[in-house]
Write a structure and sequence with these properties.
The chain is mainly alpha-helical and about 375 residues long. The chain is built from 16 helices and 5 strands. It has one domain (about 35-370).
């Protein structure tokens, strides 16, 4: 099977779930448009990379603190200065979904892993208001994935794109995975959810996740190695084809009023925006980018040379002045920070951030985490 180099592809390929608005008439080829060059400096990528590095370092710090907390229980340390960081529950999206359903069914905030639910709510709100900004601004896996395909570009001179007949069904895998998890959680009653999360397995699901990577077997290492190698050649391989979290946020982002919008009179049809898009979207042929694959990375906006040709915008029906429709990079960055810190601060202020599991229970469960069996979910 021959993959097509991205650098050589024509930006005409359509993609599933684009919901695009094609230009009514074909673009003229005989008359060359005059370039009115941008005067302002684009800072979107500086903002985005700063957020990526900061959030990656935050997760490294959380992971290190959590590892020390687990080791203290494994070694039998009675008095430990290291506390459990509730932020690690961001790595428990299934627990977040279960808790969200429990909250919707009962009106009560769940006691076990409440941070997982509030972080899920944060990222869903982010997807609705700011597209899939979580994926390209905050997600550590998204950040590492981007670094890998950029490294592949430097090593091999280009990255590759799968043919459409293979790309489309592979992208459907993440929606199948999401559908399975939603089906499993939606079929559980409130009592079943509570029983699951209060079981030994549920209470130390975070420890089980850590131990999976600590004691990675041959099969797990092989899969991880395949994902790393594939990401060198195919941009954002995990995110594009397999991530159910990204699928959920992508579906949510379809309802977002915020979109990258193109102004055809100002556009010079250079197609630079389409060539740099890591999601392989034909930005140069759309009036607005509605695709669930758009991650609000703003690379297309950053590379556009024409004044007012491409911008992240609200619909004009929501704002009084046309200029106010434009969302600058600093405002998007501020929105990401406000949503993340605001919802997390609310959860902490209301006492719904940490799980009230006593150390005596952890002393019994953490050293024997590998023995905890997944309970059959109640209905």
């Amino acid at each position: 099977m021959a993959a097509t180099p991205i650098a050589q592809r024509a930006p005409k390929q359509l993609h599933i779930l684009q919901e695009s608005e094609p230009v009514p008439s074909s673009r003229p080829v005989s008359k060359k448009k005059v370039l009115v060059r941008r005067t302002g400096k684009d800072t979107s990528q500086q903002w985005r990379r700063g957020f990526q590095v900061a959030f990656l370092l935050l997760n490294v710090w959380l992971g290190g603190q959590f590892f020390l907390w687990v080791r203290n229980f494994e070694l039998g340390v009675v008095q430990s200065a290291v506390s459990r960081p509730a932020g690690v529950e961001g790595w428990l999206p299934i627990a977040g979904m279960m808790n969200l359903r429990y909250w919707l069914l009962t009106g009560r905030v769940p006691a076990i892993h409440p941070a997982a639910m509030f972080l899920l709510i944060t990222f869903l709100a982010m997807a609705f208001l700011l597209r899939k900004a979580f994926c390209s601004w905050l997600c550590p896996i998204g950040t590492v994935s981007e670094w890998l395909w950029r490294a592949g570009t430097r090593m091999f001179g280009r990255t590759f794109q799968l043919p459409r007949w293979l790309d489309l069904p592979l992208r459907g895998l993440k929606y199948l995975l999401l559908g399975f998890f939603v089906w499993a959680v939606a079929g559980m009653s409130a009592q079943g959810l509570e029983d699951f999360l209060h079981s030994p397995y549920g209470m130390i699901a975070d420890v089980k996740m850590l131990n999976f990577f600590r004691f990675l077997g041959g099969a797990g290492a092989g899969v991880l190695g395949f994902l790393v190698v594939a990401s060198l050649f195919l941009p954002n391989f995990w995110c594009r084809f397999l991530c159910p979290y990204g699928a959920l946020l992508g579906i949510t982002s379809l309802f977002s009023p915020l979109r990258v919008r193109r102004n055809p009179p100002a556009c010079i049809d250079c197609a630079k925006c389409a060539r740099v898009c890591p999601s392989l979207l034909p930005v140069d042929r759309l009036l607005s980018v509605k695709s669930s694959e758009c991650t609000a990375c703003m690379l297309c906006v950053a590379v556009c040379p024409a004044e007012n040709a491409l911008a992240m915008q609200w619909p004009h029906s929501l704002v009084r002045h046309r200029k106010a429709a434009h969302l600058p990079a600093w405002a998007l960055a501020l929105g990401v920070a406000v949503l993340f810190l605001g919802i997390m601060g609310f959860a902490k202020a209301t006492g719904h951030w940490n799980s009230p599991i006593p150390d005596s229970v952890y002393r019994q469960l953490v050293p024997r985490a590998n023995q905890a069996q997944h309970p059959m979910p109640g209905r």
